[in-house]
Amino acid sequence: MFKIIDLPYAADALEPVISAKTLSFHHGKHLQAYVDNLNKLLPGSGFEGMTLEEIVVSSAVMPGSTGHPAIFNNAGQILNHNLYFTQFRPSVIPDQIGDPVTPDLIGGPLLTQIETQWGSFDAFKADFEAKGTGLFGSGWVWLAGAPNGTLTITQEPGAGNPLTSGLTPILTFDVWEHAYYLDYQNRRASHLSALWQILNWAEIKHRYQG
Ligand code: MN
After folding, report:
1. Quick one: CA dihedral 107, 104, 93, 82, positive or negative?
2. DSSP state at residue 196
3. What residues are neighbours of ligand 1 (ion), with CB under 5 Å?
4. Where are the alpha helices (DSSP H) in 26-107?
5. DSSP letter (8 states) at residue 60
6. Is 164 within 8 Å of 182 (Cβ atoms)?
7. Residue 171: exposed, middle, or buried by beta-carbon count in 10 A (0-12, 13-18, 19+)?
């Protein structure tokens, strides 16, 4: 049985970037439904006893394999949301409001690799936002790391996760409408550009550096 993760901050801690109302639906309703669905699907499926990551990789539809889409969609959405919700931190750190995304805040090997590949952090941000805005329909935009440290931005439809391509998921923006519609209506780009204000770079760097 999988359980829903606890949020590592208060329900209103991400305001005004993500409202308490959006968070309550996104975590309490959408993520809870994925957890409930997976727990119903697992018995007798052959995927019992696996970790979430193992289920996602082994149930994915891949060339030569029809996979198990119902299992994959629910397990993928749980894994994706766990990584999504735990990459944020409260927005009420006074010194960081208005200028929260300085390279100094990031630092270390991740920033060095971003600057090597994109030229600057701002160029990376623009590319990441454009790929999130340009993803047709529902899905996720990811920053993912290859075993040699090279970074890639991937656009994953539905419940997709770069793990199924052998990459490590590092940072993700959820572009399903349920992630932003209450606060931003159809303005996906405005929502994505605001998310940088609440990222927990200590957590994100840890995912890259291991
Ligand atoms: Mn979502």
Report:
1. negative
2. G
3. 174, 176, 179
4. 32-41, 52-59, 69-85, 103-106
5. S
6. no
7. buried
Nearest to 88 by CA among 210, 170, 201, 190: 201
How far away, in angstroms, is 116 Cα from ligand 1 center?
Answer: 31
**Which tens digit of pLDDT belongs to each residue from 1-53?**
999 999 999 999 999 999 999 999 999 999 999 999 999 999 999 999 999 99
Task: Give the position of tokens 């305001």.
Answer: 15
SS3 content of the chain, % helix, strand, coil (to 5): 50, 10, 35
The answer to whether 62 touches 164, Cβ cutoff 8 Å, is yes
Whether the model clears a pTM of 0.85, i.e. scores above it, the answer is yes
Give the per-residue pLDDT at 64. 86
How many CB atoms are closer than 10 A to CB 78? 24
Q: 177 C-alpha to center of ligand 1: Å?
A: 8
The Cα–Cα gap between 150 and 19 comes to 34
Q: Which residues contact 140 (CB under 8 A, 6 or more apart)?
A: 80, 84, 155, 156, 159, 160, 161, 172, 173, 174, 175
Contact at 8 Å (CB) between 4 and 32?
yes
CB 163, CB 140: distance < 8 Å? no
